[in-house]
Amino acid sequence: MTERQIRLFGDPVLRSRTDLIPDPGDPRVRALVEDLVDTVEAPGRAGLAATQIGVGLRAFSVNIDGDISYVINPVLEVSGEPELVDEGCLSVPGFYFPRLRHPWARVTGVDVDGNEVVLEGDGLMAQALQHETDHLDGKLYIEGLEPETKREAMRAIRQADWFSA
């Protein structure tokens, strides 16, 4: 389909919890998945949630080392002691801040044909699965920052060229 415009911090859709997709085979869901895949394949993109392109449905795509996949209605599992990792977000462009993430994660869901999908891993994959699932729950990664880091992040974001209150 097409590469879609990314919604930026401040857009209310980013704070909205998404709805389950009752019929993954619906042509509109197939089109959404194609857009998620087309949009995440640009260089430097590790993941993209439907909310980031303005759609309030539970689906996301990931691009880990050029391996692109997607999941509909993901359910997240994590394990391991959370570790500080530098994290950024397409909806908060140009910034990276340290935040706690579990070192391993798995999501289970379905594809557009209703087949089970399991995505799992450590490192960037674990981080992306947690980050994108947070988006589907209406949470931005900056909400998980330590208080002082969050204050600094918010100060920097408010001064960004792309930010509009």
Assembly level: single chain
Integer average pLDDT: 96
Helix content: 10-25%
Overall SS class:
alpha+beta
Radius of gyration: 15 Å
Number of helices: 3
Low-confidence stretches: none
End-to-end Cα distance: 31 Å
How would a textbook summarize the main sheet?
5 strands, antiparallel
* Global geometry: globular
Q: Output the helix-strand order.
A: HEEEEEEEHH
- Spatial strand order of the main sheet: 1-2-3-6-7
**Beta-strand segment tally:** 7
- How much strand? 25-35%
Structure description:
It is built from 3 helices and 7 strands. The chain has helices spanning 27-40, 123-136, 147-158, and strands at 47-49, 59-64, 67-79, 83-89, 92-101, 104-110, 116-122. The chain has a 5-stranded antiparallel β-sheet. The longest helix has 14 residues, at 27-40. The protein is globular and about 45 Å long. The termini are far apart.
